[in-house]
Automatic annotation (TrEMBL):
PROSITE patterns: ABC_TRANSPORTER_2. The keyword Hydrolase applies. It is an enzyme of class 3 (hydrolase). Belongs to the ABC transporter superfamily. It comes from the Bacteria. Its EC number is 3.6.3.-. Pfam families: ABC_tran. SUPFAM superfamilies: P-loop containing nucleoside triphosphate hydrolases. The lineage of its organism: Bacteria, Bacillati, Bacillota, Clostridia, Lachnospirales. SMART domains: AAA. It comes from Blautia obeum. This is Putative ABC transporter ATP-binding protein YxlF. The keyword Transmembrane helix does not apply.
Length: 313
């Protein structure tokens, strides 16, 4: 229902995004994930017709966003990074103005705004001035605005940025609910956000597409890469020598613990085997006590760090 094909945007000599392609199917929640500056807002601004691409195309329900902008835009509700709110209007006045701008027939406006306010739980705030609302409620008004006109596709650029944890959960719940009736695309630079809400993840980094796959597949794909956490008390060199005896283990991270001569390692396990017992006996033999040994699969968070260099810095 949305095809993004070979999208490229250049600012001067700088590529904000380069050759990005993906597609969105009906009825799913998609996450566009990437560190700050990756090109998320640029991609969304092009998809929604706010800015032009340098090259490439976006087809929405069969309509080219550049060539048939009016038809294509009817299918999309968009909440940009900076919500287009009129602070001196009440919630009702603002949504009425949006309905007017979007060409919702007069006879339908009242009931549509009523429905939308119910959906995002804003009804009891309808006569408040937008400037007097909390950040969480302002964001709901921003989302409400996308729903006016009942578009099939809702695109939200970092909808939870700047919210407190309680508001984040509320907005997440709301997004899940929107996913029941709409195709949703949300962007975020926080992976846990996407993992919690989205069916499918498109990851971009430095303007390039890194991976596009279901949340489930991404987790499966990297499940093989287990991590072992191990704390050992003894001479660092001896500990490292023992670890070298296990070719399938590589040291991903090492920290000195607060206790004297205690080192905490994160080991990557290359072959999915469970080395805990072997390590236990080998370290015991060497007279080096292990204070901790535990196994963990890679979380989506780790995967994100792995495939976007930014996250590692
Ligand atoms: P994100 O939303 O993922 O943080 P953006 O799409 O905002 O990333 O930005 C992608 C890249 O494009 C960044 O390097 C940014 O500096 C650059 N960029 C974005 N908008 C402009 C602009 N109007 N002029 C010049 N460079 C821009
Ligand atoms: Mg952005």
């Amino acid at each position: 229902m949305i095809e993004v094909r070979n999208l490229t945007k250049k600012y001067g000599d700088h590529f904000a995004i380069q050759d990005i392609s993906f597609s969105l199917e009906k009825g799913k929640i998609y996450g566009l994930l990437g560190p700050n500056g990756a090109g998320k807002s640029t991609t969304m601004n092009i998809m929604t017709g706010y800015i032009a691409a340098t090259s490439g195309e976006v087809i929405i329900e069969g309509h080219d966003i550049f060539k048939e902008a009016e038809e294509a835009k009817k299918h999309i509700g968009y909440l940009p990074e900076i919500p287009p709110l009129y602070m001196d209007m009440t919630v009702w006045e603002y949504l009425f103005t949006v309905a007017d701008l979007k060409g919702v027939p007069k006879s339908e406006r009242k009931s549509m705004i009523g429905d939308v306010m119910e959906k995002v739980m804003l009804t009891n705030m309808k006569d408040r001035l937008i400037k007097n609302l909390s950040k969480g409620y302002k964001q709901r008004v921003g989302i409400a605005q996308t729903l006016i006109g009942n578009p099939d596709i809702i695109i939200l650029d970092e909808p939870t940025v700047g919210l407190d944890p309680k508001q984040i959960i509320e907005i997440r719940t709301l997004i899940k609910r929107l996913g029941e009736d709409h195709t949703v695309l949300i962007s975020s630079h926080i992976l846990s956000e996407i993992g919690a809400v989205c069916d499918h993840v498109v990851i971009i980094n430095k303007g390039h597409l890194v991976v596009s796959d279901s949340t489930e597949n991404l987790e499966k794909l990297f499940k093989g890469q287990d991590i072992l956490c191990l704390s050992a008390q003894g001479e660092l060199e001896k500990i490292q020598n023992i670890l070298r005896e296990f070719p399938a283990l590589s040291i991903a991270d090492m920290k000195e613990a607060e206790e004297a001569e205690t080192y905490r390692f994160q080991l990557k396990v290359q072959d999915q085997a469970d080395y805990r017992k072997q390590l236990f006996f080998r370290f015991a033999e060497a007279g080096i006590p292990l204070l901790e040994i535990s196994r963990a699969g890679m979380s989506l968070e780790d995967i994100f760090l792995e495939i976007t260099e930014e996250g590692r810095a």
